[in-house]
């Protein structure tokens, strides 16, 4: 019966967890499968009146001949627009200041992990947190994306860099060389493996799209933070690479089509070196042609670049390459990139973007016609038709220009609203499904907590009274109440809820399960209270009340769990642990002092029992102040003195232990300043890892590894001792090879082979 009960609890718990996760990980906004994505593009809006038809029904031609995308992992905006940009990236800063580029700051929505961010850049969609799970084993991307569209259109794509691209887009590149991203201590070779192909590929003409993904800056951030002295040389290296690419593309420019250089980051870098949340990266579009004029109004000032969404890049790149916009994209066209084109071309671009967003909204929202963005798009589309009528009639007056600007403004407003509506669907949690799952989980947890005392007793019996709840009035009342709540929630919810989409039979079954669990819990609690009132059958045994240590452990555990509800407490969680450990040590010290000095160590009756049973004193002696005649037995005297010595040493060791732990905790706190707020403050760890104190760090590391060996080797076999010794030696050798510690036999100024 206990096995059936435990299995049933696990199954019900799995159901609750599945419901909660289904609400926590919302279904992403998706369109039709990729193989159906190359449908005919929409034509221009039909002008009003009979006999008038627009002659533009194809996708606009490419705006650029060759496109180079340089993705610098963890490129922060202040690395270019701040003081570091002027100091370490002079060429890039100079190009931005001249106004010959379009500069933006792109905002990346969480999760800020490389693989989801690549998906966002190439599909224009917003990945969910479930993509973090598959980040380590990136499967092929099956959604409609820019790389697939370019390959289908016959464009030749070359890629060098992070092998995540190769996994996401297998068989899409005519040439590629992937580098692994998990050797975080590698700052140099991971980028050299990309740059070594650059001179050769820039001289060739057999490619249309070149993608370079540099990882070194991200690795430096993870290991040493954004303020590391290693960041400057890495930024200077990236600036020289951008200069080389820019000059090469300028030398191959043509009068018909310019080339395009796009520099961007996949995510930002926090002050502690992690990716951060809502990361801001620098993005700039560099038209490598001096023939095409760039209007002065399209380049933002260096100090105040325009903010865009990272998902906007996929849509803009598709327009620039003359490709269809990805069906799942929620991004908007970055208008300054096409600001030099005619009014008809600009209206055609934004109409294609609006048509794609409105179609995506139709496929994911039942009441799409009531969406403000869809209504604005239809109004703009109608105005666009009126503008086309004037254009086809040959009207070149000021009225045509003003109407075109008005239509363009309407389109941009509709695009912004449509994108916002679609983005909210991705980031919106299914609260009702989460609440139902949480109720089931908490009910099973409470039932298990009620069963633990009985399950741990000698007889290990626990009877769940199932029959009374299932035939009680309370059960049916709870079922009716929960079903009424379900009807109200499902009929009034504006967004689609997974639990509401289930059949009514399934929903009623879940409500009956919740009601049965609640009635079972109430019956079990009532039975516990009923048993507590019954008179005891055996002799009265005094039960010890909770001590201060028990109360502290319970209170500290509950308080720590509650503190995890706030992100600031999670970031500074170590402060909570410091407080709890120090408090626990002090309470333990008080408890030990009271037990050893304030309480009577034994009563007279117990002393007489020990005196009468002196033969078993060696095993049963519990008190040290026992009056036993020395002449009774010499063997008893020896055992007594030995036990007194052991008891006395144990007492002083137990009294000293909390203070030793407190001292060790204080030393540990001074080793590293962790968290977010105080990570920049100097500590013993910074002192040890500085180049001036490498010998001290090496000595401490060697002593620590030797202590580990001597403490563990006593319980090991000969083979295990040899294996552990070689392993610990390998740990030290690895740290010496990467320059953290020194070898005792290392000669000064002589490098060691890795």
Automatic annotation (TrEMBL):
The chain crosses the membrane at residues 431-450, 470-489, 501-529, 697-713, 725-745. InterPro entries: Alkaline_phosphatase_core_sf (IPR017850), Phosphodiest/P_Trfase (IPR002591), PIG-G_N (IPR037674), PIGG/GPI7 (IPR039527). Pfam families: Phosphodiest. Its main location: endoplasmic reticulum. The keyword Manganese does not apply. Coiled coil: none annotated. It is a multi-pass membrane protein. GO terms for cellular component: endoplasmic reticulum membrane. GO terms for biological process: GPI anchor biosynthetic process. Pathway: Glycolipid biosynthesis; glycosylphosphatidylinositol-anchor biosynthesis. This is PIGG transferase. It comes from Thryothorus ludovicianus.
């Amino acid at each position: 019966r206990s096995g059936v009960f435990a299995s049933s609890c696990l199954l019900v718990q799995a159901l609750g967890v599945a419901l909660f996760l289904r609400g926590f990980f919302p279904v992403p906004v998706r369109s039709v499968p990729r193989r159906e994505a190359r449908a005919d593009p929409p034509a221009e809006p039909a002008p009003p009146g009979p006999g008038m038809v627009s002659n533009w029904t194809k996708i606009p031609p490419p705006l650029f001949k060759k496109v180079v995308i340089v993705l610098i992992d963890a490129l922060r905006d202040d690395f270019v627009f701040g003081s570091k940009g002027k100091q370490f990236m002079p060429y890039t800063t100079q190009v931005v200041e001249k106004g010959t580029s379009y500069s933006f700051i792109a905002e990346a929505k969480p999760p800020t992990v490389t693989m989801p961010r690549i998906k966002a850049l190439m599909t224009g969609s917003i990945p969910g947190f479930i993509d973090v799970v598959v980040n380590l084993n990136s499967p092929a991307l099956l959604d409609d994306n820019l790389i697939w569209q370019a390959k289908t259109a016959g464009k030749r794509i070359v890629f060098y860099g992070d092998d995540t691209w190769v996994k996401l887009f297998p068989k899409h590149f005519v040439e590629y060389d992937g580098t692994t991203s998990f050797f975080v201590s590698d700052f140099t070779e991971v980028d050299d493996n990309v740059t070594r192909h650059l001179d050769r590929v820039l001289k060739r003409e057999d490619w249309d799209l070149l993608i370079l993904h540099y990882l070194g800056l991200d690795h430096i951030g993870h290991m040493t933070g954004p303020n590391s002295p290693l960041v400057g040389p890495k930024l200077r290296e990236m600036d020289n690479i951008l200069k080389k690419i820019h000059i090469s593309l300028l030398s191959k420019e043509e009068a018909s089509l310019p080339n395009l250089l796009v520099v961007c980051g996949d995510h930002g870098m926090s002050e502690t070196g992690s990716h951060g949340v809502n990361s801001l990266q620098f993005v700039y579009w560099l038209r490598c042609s001096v023939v095409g004029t760039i209007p002065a109004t399209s380049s933002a000032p260096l100090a105040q670049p325009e903010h865009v969404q990272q998902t906007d890049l996929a849509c803009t790149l598709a327009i620039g390459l003359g490709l269809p916009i990805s069906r799942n994209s929620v991004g908007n066209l970055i208008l300054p990139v096409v600001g030099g084109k005619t009014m008809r071309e600009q209206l055609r671009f934004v109409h294609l973007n609006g048509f794609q967003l409105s179609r995506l909204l139709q496929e994911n929202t039942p009441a799409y016609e009531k969406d403000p963005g869809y209504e604005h798009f239809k109004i703009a589309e109608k105005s666009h038709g009126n503008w086309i009528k004037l254009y086809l009639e040959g009207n070149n007056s000021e009225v045509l220009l003003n109407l075109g600007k008005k239509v363009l403004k309407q389109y941009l407003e509709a695009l912004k609203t449509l994108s916002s509506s679609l983005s909210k669907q991705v980031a919106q949690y299914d609260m009702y499904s989460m609440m139902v799952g949480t109720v089931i989980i908490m009910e099973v947890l409470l039932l298990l907590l009620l069963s633990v005392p009985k399950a741990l007793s000698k007889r290990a019996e626990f009877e769940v009274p199932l029959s009374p709840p299932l035939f009680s009035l309370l059960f049916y009342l709870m079922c009716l109440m929960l079903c009424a709540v379900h009807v109200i929630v499902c009929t009034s919810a504006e967004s689609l809820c997974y639990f509401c989409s289930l059949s009514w039979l399934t929903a009623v079954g879940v409500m009956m399960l919740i009601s049965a669990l609640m009635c079972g819990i109430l019956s079990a609690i009532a039975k516990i209270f009923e048993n507590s009132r019954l008179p005891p059958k055996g002799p009265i045994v005094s039960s010890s009340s909770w001590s201060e240590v028990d109360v502290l452990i319970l209170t500290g555990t509950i308080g720590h769990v509650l503190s995890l509800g706030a992100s600031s407490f999670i970031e500074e969680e170590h402060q909570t642990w410091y407080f709890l450990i120090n408090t626990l040590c002090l309470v333990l010290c008080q408890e030990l002092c009271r037990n050893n000095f304030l309480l009577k160590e034994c009563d007279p009756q117990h002393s007489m029992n020990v005196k009468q049973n002196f033969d078993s004193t060696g095993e049963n002696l519990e008190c040290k102040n026992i009056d036993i005649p020395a002449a009774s037995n010499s063997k008893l005297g020896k055992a007594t003195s030995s036990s007194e010595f052991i008891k006395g040493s144990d007492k002083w060791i137990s009294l000293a232990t909390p203070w030793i732990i407190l001292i060790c905790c204080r030393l540990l706190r001074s080793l590293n300043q962790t968290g977010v707020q105080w990570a920049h403050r100097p500590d013993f760890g910074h002192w040890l890892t500085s180049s001036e104190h490498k010998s001290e760090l090496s000595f401490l590391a060697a002593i620590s590894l030797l202590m580990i060996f001597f403490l563990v080797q006593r319980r090991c076999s000969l083979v295990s001792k040899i294996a552990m010794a070689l392993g610990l030696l390998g740990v030290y050798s690895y740290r010496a090879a990467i320059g953290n510690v020194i070898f005792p036999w290392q000669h000064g100024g002589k490098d060691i082979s890795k």
